[in-house]
Amino acid sequence: MHNEFKPLTPKFPKFVHGGDYNPDQWLDHPEILEEDIKLMKEAHCNCMSIGIFAWATLEPEEGVYRFEWLDSVIDNLYNNGIYTVLATPSGARPHWMAKKYPEVLRVGPNRVRNLFGKRHNHCYTSPIYREKVWQINTKLAQRYSNHPGVILWHLSNEYSGDCHCELCQKAFREYLKDKYKTLDNLNKAWWTSFWSHTYTDWSQIESPAPHGEDIVHGMNLDWNRFVTHQTSDFIKWEAKAVKSVNPDIPTTINMMMYFDGLNYQVIKDDIDVISWDAYPKWHHVGDETQVASEFAMYHDLMRSLKDRPFMLMESTPSMTNWQEVSKLKRPGMHLLSSLQAVAHGSNSVQYFQWRKSRGSSEKLHGAVVDHYGKSDTRVFRDVRDVGIALEKLQCLYDSNVKAKVALIFDVENAWGVNDSQGPRNCGVKYKETVLAHYRALWELGVSVDIIDMTCDLSKYSVVIAPMVYMLRDGFSDRVKKFVSDGGSFVMTYWSGIVNETDLCFLGGMPGEMMDVMGIRSEEIDSLYDGETNCIVKCGEAPDTMKEKYTASELCDLIHCITAKPLYTYGEDFYAGMAALTENDFGKGKSYYIASRNEPAFQKDFYRELLKRTDVEPNFKGELPYGVTVGKRVGDKDYLFVQNYTKNEQTLTLDREYTDILSGEKYAGTLSLKPYDVKVII
Ligand code: GLA
Ligand code: ZN
After folding, report:
1. For residue 102, cis peptide bond before it (omega within 30 degrees of 0)
2. What is the fold of 46-275?
3. Pairing, β 564-569 against β 657-658
4. Which one of the listed residues 59, 288, 294, 314 is annotated catalytic?
5. Is 443 a catalytic residue?
6. What is the average pLDDT across 656-662?
7. Rounded to the nearest whole angstrom, what is the distance from the C-alpha of residue 108 to the centroid of ligand 2?
8. Domain coordinates of the chain in residue numbers?
């Protein structure tokens, strides 16, 4: 057996199938708790996440603990072959705590302290909150971390948000003192002489506020960095509490999709296992390809954080209750979307939630068990089928995705580029741009790592950097080394504008990247929605690419220094200026895409570029629109063939394949039903 990775959960080295379970809501319904066990077995669930919001049940009064109910739940599950992911309860706290210690509650950017309510409503700096969390975490660890059924710590829930209380202001100033040492350094880094905002005393520094300072971009960036720093410190504190009792149980936090409130690249080292919560909006108007490629990218991001399998901690078995329209998953979609996560490196499929709560805000959120309470439902059958599929896929538990292509999606860059005023305040579209490049590779069936500018580039053949507006320290040196050594590097318009404190480069754009790209950007033109230009083939552009592609929104006006143009603009006063360039640098090549182009450009360009490298698509043959193939590599290559269309699709095969789920053999062609997924070797 190929054994590259330590299992995510060594006590239970198997694909995890289960979900958030809230027995604390049903303690006066013992018959339901009994029924749950029966239903879990029937659904082929092998694990439950418990205690996420159970603090008030665990500690109903300060220092008074009630663990008997949890003892019996964990024992009962274990005796029935079901393991426990145990949560620390810090995501929400009991009323008594907020009443007695108001400092645990969060203060908003408007400097008003919240009342008790909702969740995630706490200050990460408060020493009292930290002490209370330490106490409950160590109690839980003392009681359960040696239980044979407890396999993983789920620290808190979806860490997010910031607090602007006095304790946090003080911590922010300390963070800045540590970073800049002198006020003079800070003033220079933030360019505070602009509008006379120079600081003359550390005490003048306040966090960004809508009724105060919020236009100093360098400060906004540092506030975001501080929030990550403080959250990371809090996570370390939580982890230390449980690990001080038994260091052997791994920890995770459930990360979020599209979340740029925290820099997960910093936080990844605070935990042992990456996990995240995915809630795609399937069956939106139009086709599924946009949502499918977006979620593929987010799965890839989570895997790439530690370059090892991750866990899908939450997904809905049916629908959410918070999307604008809560649409049901069409037949096939539950297995398809669950195995999409596995295809990209997940070693689990877990749900929010096992059983629907009876009241309050999530009573209508999808669950494995509905208020109906029985197993003869479509959703339950879909869940059971995923459980059965995961059991059959255990052979690939030790495999991972191996990508030779890296796409850069950098959260600090997102903070900077989105905060900056100009060049297109109606939508600079950083995330969408990264997705547009990802989507082309997804359509081509190529495995991709999603990394940021601080990551190592040396293991890749191709690195793609869309809109790297802010060059992180050391990035340009790593790129130069990568290209000199033979790599292919792609960068787009609106790159190399500022440094890490949001100060513009002097001497021309793209700053430190000018030599490796062999171009200089002089100006950038912004187009209104609906306005277009075009780029036209010239010189040595590959034959398979079209003569012309539409350009829109952002057109960078560049001069070639050492690069040669492959396309030039077709219209307007800059017609004839380079729009796509290629530059030889050492043993490698760099490409500059000067304009935002129609999707076909990305697909044609990357198809051609990959042919010149050692990167192979996961499937040998053409993929119909809406069909993609992911690959996990272990003792064998496991191909996940996914059909995101509502039509039957046929693929031509290069050899005979065996279907792991059905045992069937395919030769010649492979037919996929609507929303079908097959795992073949
Ligand atoms: C998040 C939370 C869960 C639940 C789900 C609902 O992911 O972590 O507690 O609220 O959303 O979709
Ligand atoms: Zn605070």
Report:
1. no
2. TIM Barrel (3.20.20)
3. unpaired
4. 314
5. no
6. 98
7. 9
8. 46-275, 405-612, 627-680
